[in-house]
Amino acid sequence: MNVQMGNVVPDGFVFEREQNVMHGACNGIALLIIPVMAEDQFRIQLHADVERSGGKERLLEYLGMLQQRHSFIQYAGYNGMNMVSVHVASREQEDKENLTIVISELTEKCAEFGLHNCCTRCKNVSLLRAATVDGAPALLCAGCLSQMTEGAKKKENVLLGLIGAVFGVLLGTVLWVLIGQAGFIAGIAGYAIVFCGMKGYELLGKNLSKAGIVICVLLSCLMIAGAEFVSLGIVIFRELGDMYGLTLGDSFALVPAFLQESEVVGEVAKDLVIGYALAIWASYASVKSRWKQVDQEAKPHDVVSF
What we know:
Blueprint: E1 13-16, E2 21-26, E3 29-36, E4 41-47, H1 56-69, E5 73-78, E6 83-89, H2 95-113, E7 128-133, E8 136-141, H3 142-150, H4 158-181, H5 187-205, H6 210-244, H7 248-258, H8 262-298, E9 303-305
Antiparallel strand pairs: 1-2, 2-3, 3-4, 4-6, 5-6, 7-8, 7-9
């Protein structure tokens, strides 16, 4: 691309040279334009409430026809969330005119299909500002702009988070017991206990901190032992229930007595060792990734607003 950027900026748009992005609005719709030097193209970005509007299907149909209508368009598509991208090939002297054509047509279609701008991050429709976040162009609402500048500081309700984690690990424990009754010890069950615990903590606690992750892991370790206790009680009921007229409650009450038998203790210990090893193997990558994500969310981003 061998053009003077100042000469191709559409009317009503501004080129931020340091951030290498154009921003502006047409027909009440804000857009971002990013020069892609290596590919001799311009990428027009539209962040809109596509999923919540009633015009999604018509928008997709329109995007599908764009390349046929304009030879200078290399790509037109939707990312399935909230961003529409149109890639315009650079033709130097024609760039400003071509960009203006696409911008005008695209924003007119937004009005026709009932689409509105939305925040790149939270997807809410509100007053937005153009910005770059760690070098990536975005349209941000005031809340997200402030949060990303200062670092995420979400309030965490530890008590509700703990309750959510308990429900979560209990749900995962059901899978452990079911797989155990089939005669298997599966790492996926241990992963499910840890995953459901963290998800439950985050849903009710409104945030998952490092302390929350530690709580979920400790709860998961306890519940794996609890799941083995439950599995043993079910085995007693299945093997001896009919013979001695035992209820399920009676069978669970007999578990401590059975655990005094060295042979039973040995089998339970072996199952637990294998179960914990598989659970750690299956869950380690997920827990490590979530731990890093918490670190990243807590750090302020490099945000430049225009």
